[in-house]
Amino acid sequence: MSNRIHEQYDLEDELHEECGVFGMYDFDGGDVASTIYYGLFALQHRGQESCGIAVSETDGPKGRVSSFKGMGLVNEVFTPETLEGMKGDIGVGHVRYSTAGSSTRENAQPLVLNYVKGTLALAHNGNLINALQLRHELEYTGAIFQTTIDSEVIAYHIARERLNTKSVEDAVIRAMKKIQGAYSLIVMSPRKLIGARDPHGFKPLCIGKRDNSYIITSESCALETVDAEFVRDVLPGEVVTITPDGIFSDTSMCKPKEKEARCIFEYIYFARPDSHIDGVSVYHSRILAGKYLAMDSPVEADLVVGVPESGNAAALGYSLQSGIPYGTAFVKNGYVGRTFIKPKQSNRESSVRVKLNVLAEAVKGKRVIMIDDSIVRGTTSDRIVGMLKEAGATEVHVRVSSPPFLYPCYFGTDIPSREQLIAYNRSVDDIKKVIGADSLAYLEINRLGEMVEQLPHCTGCFTGKYPMDPPTIDIRGEYQK
Amino acid sequence: MSNRIHEQYDLEDELHEECGVFGMYDFDGGDVASTIYYGLFALQHRGQESCGIAVSETDGPKGRVSSFKGMGLVNEVFTPETLEGMKGDIGVGHVRYSTAGSSTRENAQPLVLNYVKGTLALAHNGNLINALQLRHELEYTGAIFQTTIDSEVIAYHIARERLNTKSVEDAVIRAMKKIQGAYSLIVMSPRKLIGARDPHGFKPLCIGKRDNSYIITSESCALETVDAEFVRDVLPGEVVTITPDGIFSDTSMCKPKEKEARCIFEYIYFARPDSHIDGVSVYHSRILAGKYLAMDSPVEADLVVGVPESGNAAALGYSLQSGIPYGTAFVKNGYVGRTFIKPKQSNRESSVRVKLNVLAEAVKGKRVIMIDDSIVRGTTSDRIVGMLKEAGATEVHVRVSSPPFLYPCYFGTDIPSREQLIAYNRSVDDIKKVIGADSLAYLEINRLGEMVEQLPHCTGCFTGKYPMDPPTIDIRGEYQK
Amino acid sequence: MSNRIHEQYDLEDELHEECGVFGMYDFDGGDVASTIYYGLFALQHRGQESCGIAVSETDGPKGRVSSFKGMGLVNEVFTPETLEGMKGDIGVGHVRYSTAGSSTRENAQPLVLNYVKGTLALAHNGNLINALQLRHELEYTGAIFQTTIDSEVIAYHIARERLNTKSVEDAVIRAMKKIQGAYSLIVMSPRKLIGARDPHGFKPLCIGKRDNSYIITSESCALETVDAEFVRDVLPGEVVTITPDGIFSDTSMCKPKEKEARCIFEYIYFARPDSHIDGVSVYHSRILAGKYLAMDSPVEADLVVGVPESGNAAALGYSLQSGIPYGTAFVKNGYVGRTFIKPKQSNRESSVRVKLNVLAEAVKGKRVIMIDDSIVRGTTSDRIVGMLKEAGATEVHVRVSSPPFLYPCYFGTDIPSREQLIAYNRSVDDIKKVIGADSLAYLEINRLGEMVEQLPHCTGCFTGKYPMDPPTIDIRGEYQK
Amino acid sequence: MSNRIHEQYDLEDELHEECGVFGMYDFDGGDVASTIYYGLFALQHRGQESCGIAVSETDGPKGRVSSFKGMGLVNEVFTPETLEGMKGDIGVGHVRYSTAGSSTRENAQPLVLNYVKGTLALAHNGNLINALQLRHELEYTGAIFQTTIDSEVIAYHIARERLNTKSVEDAVIRAMKKIQGAYSLIVMSPRKLIGARDPHGFKPLCIGKRDNSYIITSESCALETVDAEFVRDVLPGEVVTITPDGIFSDTSMCKPKEKEARCIFEYIYFARPDSHIDGVSVYHSRILAGKYLAMDSPVEADLVVGVPESGNAAALGYSLQSGIPYGTAFVKNGYVGRTFIKPKQSNRESSVRVKLNVLAEAVKGKRVIMIDDSIVRGTTSDRIVGMLKEAGATEVHVRVSSPPFLYPCYFGTDIPSREQLIAYNRSVDDIKKVIGADSLAYLEINRLGEMVEQLPHCTGCFTGKYPMDPPTIDIRGEYQK
């Protein structure tokens, strides 16, 4: 039994989100572990490498936390016995895909620790840009680190600030003055549940309610899954503290709205389409992306298809705008799991074909517009276009519902090094040839704002202009084994 | 560690196929286990309870078979080490969902056995209707049974007939004279690979080729997955014998074409849409089903949606025919696995909602036509219609791409007892009320033939008229624990 | 997860017993699985490769058997949940080390099967010498075999004889007329527990009682472990049938006493010293062996030590007889388990030293008599004598509490091929030199009878004279993969 | 799969050691993980709950440590693949039985961490008496704790001291000024292996050599197991630093010899008899204990027996001194493993009898002297004496090779609370009656010094006089969940 993941179980050429968080506090004292389980299950798309839950009894001894973490999917890690053994009316859960920190069980979250005021559990989505520098600073005061995740850096700052503050939420706020980058954070102290979102609002975070329970989580789809109502989004820079005495909001770290910098890829690809983030429907923004592609890059064709799953909504938008019929061109094998054995180079089977097959019946003799949400290295696009043609498509026009990637992301999206990006040093026409398409167009960068009702967002990976200065030392270095 | 599956990981109210088979013979002597693995992976939708592979070296000692079976998905049961340890240029694999025989590791297939002529491995899809009677007859001659699967009965007959025949394929043919019911069968003897399909052709079986290898498998999608060419379907009643000396066909058991009785549910729901069965595209037949529903049961609406995944193609057909826009109304959580913990009655979470969420954005304020492939007990339909309405759909019109279930299946489809069927003793109008739809229509029974280019098919579950007399004793009895 | 055992966890140069059996019938209807578990635990020394339990409810449906088998030790295979799930007042268990049939889960026992009269479970210790011939005969009547164990051959014969007999015990008796070799057998039919011992009595079998329950098992130590009383041994050739109506004995297959041929290695090495077999204490017979060695092969020395564990009792006997003090010279590491990683050739660590260390303090400057129960290949003896000398022993005199092995065993003891036996083609003096001892003596063959109160026993492995003709074809052939 | 150990696999009424450590540095650059594995295997008796290994390449990047930890025995946790994946010429391993800190995977050692100077791995045997106080002090400077083991407290102090010292060994020395209690410690820094033993020398630690490798480990038996030479013991208070430039010793923390306070139970029970600790043979000291018992508490009898395994050496000593023959009275079932299912109260089987059976043959009609190493609660002794009498012993005289337990241990031995100790508030005569013995005597306390060649040792658990003041707050409190 290994504690490493050997295989990714998606199409190879996709981006990866790093985490999803789900915290809950039941003022009626009911056990929350089971609901957190279903909440994490709804967030599974945000991270499939490891997951964990930590719960505590607010009327129990202060330091008593039950936690369980493991490598793999939520449904692989937790058994009915494990869940039943986790007693507590306050808790926090996490699913993880690692961009920083290696994928080992040690790095799974939530991080549970003892500090001067008892116990703390942290679950965190995002990437700090000054984590390495903060680590070094802490080490120079004698700190020791047992993981390679940013959460440990955040925890240290909260613990230290707590010495001089009158409440844990104040410690969180003071810690936020030090840490820089993207973070949506849930902190569970013995009797408080705290949600904090970085001032740029890179990553989503929202509040829900069910009967006498409150929930803080990454995406609103998780609220619907557990039959809770959406209350509101946590504001960029806001710290929300949930206690039986009420919900308290601190907005002292909030920035002017124009400084906000949501990750646009949440809308394009990461988030589930049934989520709303900061008031904008993810699904609707994808439909719009497809419509804009149809307006800006029209082409004559017989059929519009999406690369499943995330290309489907944009394909529908393209179809609605253009009047060209929408269709299904691919069958995706949904049984690829963590332990799936990838075909070797020497096998006749190919990884892409094993996971995705073309519906020849649907595309034969047709001019096909294929919508994908992004092209990273281009390796998968190349295969898929080829498969469509083998299946009899007479033309394949590729439309991409995002602009070309040209720059690294420092805030939590796992973009390969520049040299591996297909758009690096290549014109759109060159890329078209590489992937074998008859035409190719990307979403224009000025459409991004329209897609999300002009919410301020980050376009760093397209433009190289980031909402804050990227780190001068390589944050993928020493600690990011 | 349990050897039983506790949870089904699909929507509760679906039918289950029982098996998929994949056999391969590489005349160049290459190892086939790895390709069988990917082939089974492509057939995973046909059975998720257990799986297994058996291989043999045709130039090795006659009785040397390597086999490995286990409970769970193909990617859970096999490790790279297991596959690499399986040396052999001839082999057969199986995925299983149990309708007859309990779901234990003992009952996993292929069945591997020694008999008078050496070794035999069998993989079998279907259900015999005289299995119990044949078991009793065999027992009265001193036979012992170590499993509760039909394959053991078939194996016994082949072994006995082999005493008086000059080849194993002749023994298979003589055994076929005794066994009655549905079966698509692959038999691996030390140096021959044999495929046999029952004379009614209930279950699919086809032949493929890759370089100097031949493949026999349940569905053509498995051929595409391993980059093999489709050669042809095995005929109902045909026995195909693959040897290095050539491929031999025996059609002595074939019936006149009008006696054939394909399972229509392969087209409606079981098979993968990218498969062709007996010359008919599964995808195309589903599109047609949708079109017929649009012709026969039109309704004014703003949107046509499918219940994923199998309702989507029919929804597309309905949209194409009616001109009403096609859309996506549901997000299905693809991470439900074998060990997923079902919500208890006492949980606020519901099993349906955890697996399927409505895209409120897509349906709000709209009149929705929802296409499902079948309604069995109606429990899921009820929930889904309710969820659409909660999400703001003003009307929900349900169209079902198959006729109502009214009778049991004796040939391998796991239909609940009559009393549990929603259509039993209820008019369509009654059912409409039960599931809360604004209108409801089923595919008309005479459309089934049109759907499949008039291929003869079985309609027993709709009409109670079966292609052969059902058993008088309960075949779900004693042995089907 | 492998289904093969990669490592043996004992000193390499030991013989292996093949099986232990434990059956129980509680006339008060209590569950027996848990007691069978502890019984098997007491018999674990008889087989460590796989184990299993099958139970049935005598007042339940006739064909309902719960069984669980797995590779590994009793405490590895069974969990509290597994045991609790096994409901039944009659049951049988088995521990296995394979001499015939490969070590796979398929070959684990008890064998559970359906036959003309319902269900049968079999557990069997021993080796048939005509198994292969019987298999072939059965195959020529159309039988199929799914395992490579003798038990399946026995089961077939019982099933066939049952067609013409009025009871299952009669079928067992008639089957015994066909099968030849060593067997102690427990058969569980729906409402009877049957014990049978081959007419030569190679393997032990005895009866116990606890309250209103009866037990049949391999060794009396298992009775003491579960707090049951020893009732009596099953006679060689006897069939004992336990039913609520009484215990019935059939002795029609018994031979004259002088034909009996107990395996003498049960006394020398296999059985636990706290067992009595056929009225003779295993411990006492080992003490006697040591005494005879002292009488027949005396030597001046300072210390007598045993090679643990089985050499200790003979060492004590030697000490008592000779007056030379008994001591402990070795520390055995008891934590070697099934998954222990053997040192490679390239490692500095040696397999023997990792498992056994010399107590230098005890032997330094002393003349040591080292008693071992047997020398097979001599590889371990060589190492151990060397270790004693390195630790400072001035002389090492080896005494072996059995005669030299010269011939194969056909009745269930796993003796290597003749060429590998150190005594083959070597004089005692040669062997002495090979293992580096200062003197060497074996137990004289005429002492064996004295050791066991003149009970008739088999000396085939020493003399080549067997109680029945050995098979002319190699029984380690085709089926014994 | 649980991450807790449910069952102890020894006789219930034994004491538990808490840990064993094994570090190795190969100056020739060879991989050490495999040798550490066998070293830990030899130390398995010191801790069976969890184990781990961490290794590093001294010529690799400074922060690169491979580590693997898990619950269970060494042979259960490590696979050949795991070991082969661990590349490094310097490493440290640990086996653990928890007295402080809960038995979870999080608390398994070695502890691996990053600090200001790179990476550190710690393995530690012993118990600090000021750990809780130090934790609190650290927390008041902002420290966070992720485990409940003392090693984390030690690590923090080393990390903080390192800020003001020029080498890691100096930091270890300065940390030793703060921590109080029992510790034998191995620290692996990127290019140094450091061993430190507390100034009282409670726990053993010694140095070995093999070719161009150095080893630091708990017991000399581990050196023999891996074919290394014993070099010398680490002195109480000494810090030994192993580098390619030489071995450096710092003795600045050593106390005058009379302040040393070795744990006497290492000699009586914990250590393996083939180990030497501080120049004294463990085996020899046990022989002596038996001799003293024979001198001080003689009794007429026919047989002296030991309670296996640890009572055997003292029984031999008693026999040698008294002239009463030594014998074996018990058969211990060596197959009890971590997952063994303990008999419930409602079972007829008893935990003691399942693990230990009496050799009736050996004791029948005899007056038996039974030597045990200690009596804690007395529950097992009671059962064993009873079993001897049932088996026919006419008298049972119990001799204990240690004085009665009366006080808690604060230094790492898991002694139950006072009320549970059989000797608490009872005279020896009372205890004799409770356990049903015919006579009872303990080793006299003044014999302890003679047993160990007058090495200074701790007698706190017998006398309540400790080598340092016990903690005033309960160290089993808050953190020792």
UniProtKB/TrEMBL annotation, chains A, B, C, D:
It catalyses: 5-phospho-beta-D-ribosylamine + L-glutamate + diphosphate = 5-phospho-alpha-D-ribose 1-diphosphate + L-glutamine + H2O. Residues 19-245 form the Glutamine amidotransferase type-2 domain. One of its GO terms (biological process) is 'de novo' IMP biosynthetic process. The keyword Iron applies. [4Fe-4S] cluster binds at C263, C409, C458, C461. GO terms for molecular function: 4 iron, 4 sulfur cluster binding; amidophosphoribosyltransferase activity; magnesium ion binding. Pathway: Purine metabolism; IMP biosynthesis via de novo pathway; N(1)-(5-phospho-D-ribosyl)glycinamide from 5-phospho-alpha-D-ribose 1-diphosphate: step 1/2. Its cofactor is [4Fe-4S] cluster; Mg(2+). PANTHER family: AMIDOPHOSPHORIBOSYLTRANSFERASE. Catalyzes the formation of phosphoribosylamine from phosphoribosylpyrophosphate (PRPP) and glutamine. In the C-terminal section; belongs to the purine/pyrimidine phosphoribosyltransferase family. This is Amidophosphoribosyltransferase. The lineage of its organism: Bacteria, Bacillati, Bacillota, Clostridia, Lachnospirales.
